[in-house]
């Protein structure tokens, strides 16, 4: 959760499009979570990373970090569904559904606010797939 400015941008990125796309990278999983019950939450940051990664370091960082974090959340939910099949794993699966959902909302909003300020945001835990 560092608040380092993106190199070359100082405290603010050079244009509002960069900030808007970085904010969208952080918030698109919440929107997709509502539409798809969480199953497509990593698609928005992945699409933003694919199309905007070379345009701005801020957008590249925001989309890669958001994708990695929401892929981790998705993996927790998938593990929760696998454990729900067994009666013994049901209490654990409930935790793997509720806790990541709460963390997803909290950290996505924090990431969006920091992206709007032009700051780099690192999620506290993530499966590192895309590099920022």
List the helices and strands and how they pair.
Elements: H1 16-36, H2 43-52, H3 57-85, H4 90-116
Helix pairs in contact: 1-2, 1-3, 1-4, 2-3, 3-4
Could you please describe the fold and organization of this structure?
This protein has 132 residues and is mainly alpha-helical. The chain has helices spanning 16-36, 43-52, 57-85, 90-116. It has one domain (16-116). The chain starts with 15 loop residues before the first helix and ends in a 16-residue tail after the last helix.
Order of secondary-structure elements: HHHH
User: From the helix content, strand content and strand pairing, which structural class follows?
Assistant: mainly alpha
Number of strands: 0
Mean pLDDT: 82
Question: Spans with pLDDT under 50 lasting ≥5 residues?
Answer: 8-13
For the terminal residues, how far apart are their CA atoms?
A: 15 Å
Total domain units? 1
| Major sheet characteristics | none
Q: Strand-residue fraction? A: under 5%
- Cα gyration radius (Å): 15 Å
Helix content: 55-70%
Tertiary shape = elongated
Number of DSSP helical runs: 4
């Amino acid at each position: 959760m560092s608040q380092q400015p993106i190199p070359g941008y100082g405290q603010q990125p050079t244009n509002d499009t960069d900030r808007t796309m970085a904010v969208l990278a952080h918030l698109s999983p919440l929107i997709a979570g509502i539409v798809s019950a969480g199953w497509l939450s990593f698609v928005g940051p992945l699409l933003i990373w694919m199309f905007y990664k070379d345009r701005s370091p801020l957008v590249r960082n925001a989309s890669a970090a958001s994708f990695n974090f929401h892929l981790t959340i998705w993996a927790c939910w998938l593990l929760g569904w696998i454990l729900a099949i067994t009666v013994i794993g049901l209490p654990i699966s409930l935790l793997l559904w509720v806790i990541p959902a709460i963390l997803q909302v909290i950290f996505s909003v924090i990431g969006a606010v920091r992206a709007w300020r032009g700051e780099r945001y690192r999620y506290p835990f993530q499966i590192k797939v895309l590099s920022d």
